[in-house]
Amino acid sequence: MAQLFFFFFSAMILGSAVVAITAPNLIYSALALLVTLIHVAGIYVLLSAEFVAAVQIIVYAGAILVLYLFVLMIFSEHQGQQALHASYPVGVFLGLVVLAEMLMVYWGTGAASDGGTLAPPVWAKAGNTQAIGVLLYTKYLFPFEIASIILLVAMVGAITLGKRSHKAKEVAGANGSSNGHETIAAPISRVAVEHRQEETPRV
Q1: pLDDT tens across 144-177, in order?
Q2: Which residues 6+ apart lie within 8 Å of 81 measured at CB?
Q3: What is the C-alpha separation between 21 and 125, in angstroms, rounded?
Q4: Which of 1, 12, 34, 46 is most buried by its number of CB atoms within 10 A?
Q5: What does DSSP assign to residue 78?
Q6: Cα–Cα distance for residue pair 23/17, rounded to 1 Å
Q7: Torsion angle of C-alpha atoms 21, 24, 26, 30, degrees rounded to 10
């Protein structure tokens, strides 16, 4: 049964990946990418990597794909482009190179002979998610905290830069409006002075 699901997920991944590359409509391409990411998560479940499967769906199929859709909707004027880019032979060549490297790693690590059981024994006892949590908060606690601090600094920096640019736009808009009022008020005052000079009687 596991092999049946594996071949099904693999066929869906390959088919949806081809559709994502060759679809002329960018929205259809993004939806095909969503199908690809979901079935990749299914492969992770078959490999007893439930945590990685959950991250695959939450991060990639959720947040990143939504970001892609926002970008596609903003640049919707490019919907009529050709399905295949002019440099697609280079992409095909690089894809074949990556596939060859993956096969070399697969056969070189002995995963083909032992059935692909590369997980440590502790994972079989405690479970994938629990084992990752134990390693993350014991052995790799310091790198985890450093990564969280770096992400926090990046988030605060992005918010600060966004506020500065917003304030600069407000100041520029205020200066532009005040200059506009001055340029409008100057001719009006000049006309009023000339009108008063005409009304004053000459001696």
Answers
A1: 899 989 989 988 888 888 777 666 666 666 665 5
A2: 24
A3: 41
A4: 34
A5: G
A6: 10
A7: -40
